[in-house]
Model the fold of this input.
Amino acid sequence: MSISFESKGSFKNLEKFLSRMNNLQIESILSKFGAQGVQALQAATPVSTGLAASSWSYEVIRTGRRWTVAWNNTDIENGYPVAVMIQYGHGTGTGGYVQGIDYINPALKPLFQQLADEVWKVVKTA
Done:
């Protein structure tokens, strides 16, 4: 089975647009928001020893044409990520349970909207 199409005219405008899209500074935009996210997470992380709050970092990952910004926390206690235990709660060694505190989502939500707005502006003007 084969599919083909024929077109008359020029794809000049489309090619120009795609070329501009390819040259966007997506990595620098994501890096800017990655750093802001680290600051927001550090400020929002409940502090006991301060280690979880100071252990945030970010990385910008490109896989083909897909870009991702990932926030990481390296504070691990007894094999478990402390940031996740704070967020979702955890059992204690004596059979109790510590309720989670949703601090990650509220810290990052405003950044997601700002990021979407900034990328959209860049795309519209490209």
Observations:
- The first strand starts at residue 56 and ends at 63.
- The longest helix spans residues 104-125.
- Residues 68 and 125 are 22 Å apart (CA to CA).
